[in-house]
Amino acid sequence: MRVEAFMLCDAATVQGGKLNVLGAFDTIYFPTVPAVYPACSIALRIRWQRIEEGDHSLRITIVDADGKPLGPPVQGSARVRMPAGSSTAVSNLTLQMQRLPFKDYGEFSIDLAIDGRQEGSLPLIVKPVPPPSS
Fold this sequence. Notes:
Elements: E1 2-15, E2 18-24, E3 27-30, E4 35-49, E5 54-64, E6 74-80, E7 88-102, E8 106-114, E9 117-128
Parallel strand pairs: 3-9
Antiparallel strand pairs: 1-2, 1-4, 4-7, 5-6, 5-8, 8-9
């Protein structure tokens, strides 16, 4: 198994076997905190080998710099079936997130676990809006 894409973005969809991603980012700006980010998505593309055919558990957790979760983890699963004549299969997955709460500025991490093992981590930085340049 190999994670081919794991990103935070403005929007993500899966259509016709394609993963569509719009506006990948890692930094959010707020004038003040606490604040709520209205909507974003996580896009995920995983390539599986023939030996990995079957069901797999997925978990995504967002934590602060001290490891405290922003909320409960999102749990799901992927059922991997090999297409006829192929030695690999792909899972394209999206997670739509609404109203992400941030109590403070700082660095956060979006962590991906597959079958209980961490397979990816994305930084998410929350900063104050910079002053206008003169």
